[in-house]
Specification:
Double Stranded RNA Binding Domain; Ribosomal Protein S5, domain 2; 2 domains; 4-stranded antiparallel beta sheet; 4-stranded mixed beta sheet
């Protein structure tokens, strides 16, 4: 008989994970400074599912583990066109960071950098054009990208919501 897993642990699936940012944070108390580590991790199956999570702990590996568990819990399915790009342009703001995502033609590749590239590649997007404006804070850029991908809707979803056919929408 196999051992029971703790109810608080998410089931480990075959997800790729990428550490976006690790920071040392300090809490100053009367007794001195307490150092901890904060991590931001993106996970995805490179096939339309992606998640973003954060974790904080006294040691780096523990913080990364907490962040990846949090990201696995927050996974969402995103809309893809032809299993390679996003359905439409979108601009998303998160605090001081603004991210612009635009669908691209076949063979363009992922034109993105930093945290945007990590999230987009783990989602399974193969052709996309992006622009990051404003604050370059990795956590805010990653969150803006994640939110933008969550808001994507296909023509079929829009048509169903409006009670029309896809041809009428296009």
């Amino acid at each position: 008989m196999e051992p029971k897993r703790k109810s608080r642990e998410p089931r480990t699936k075959n997800y790729d994970e990428e550490v976006i940012d690790i920071r040392r944070v300090v809490k100053v108390t009367k007794g001195g400074r307490n150092f901890r580590f904060s991590a931001v991790v993106a996970v995805g199956d490179r096939n339309g599912r992606v998640g973003l999570g954060t974790g904080k702990a006294n040691e780096v590996p523990e913080a990364i583990s907490k962040a990846s568990n949090n990201a696995a819990k927050n996974m969402v399915r995103i809309s893809l066109v032809e299993n390679r790009t996003i359905p439409h342009e979108i601009t998303q703001k998160q605090t001081g960071s603004i991210v612009f995502l635009k669908p691209a033609l076949k063979g363009t590749g992922v034109k993105a950098g930093g945290a945007v590239r990590s999230v987009v590649e783990l989602a399974g997007i193969k052709d996309i054009l992006t622009k990051s404006i404003g604050s370059s804070s990795k956590i805010n850029v990653a969150r803006a990208t994640f939110e933008a991908l969550k808001k994507q809707k296909t023509a079929e979803e829009v048509a169903a919501a409006r009670g029309k056919t896809v041809e009428e929408i296009l």
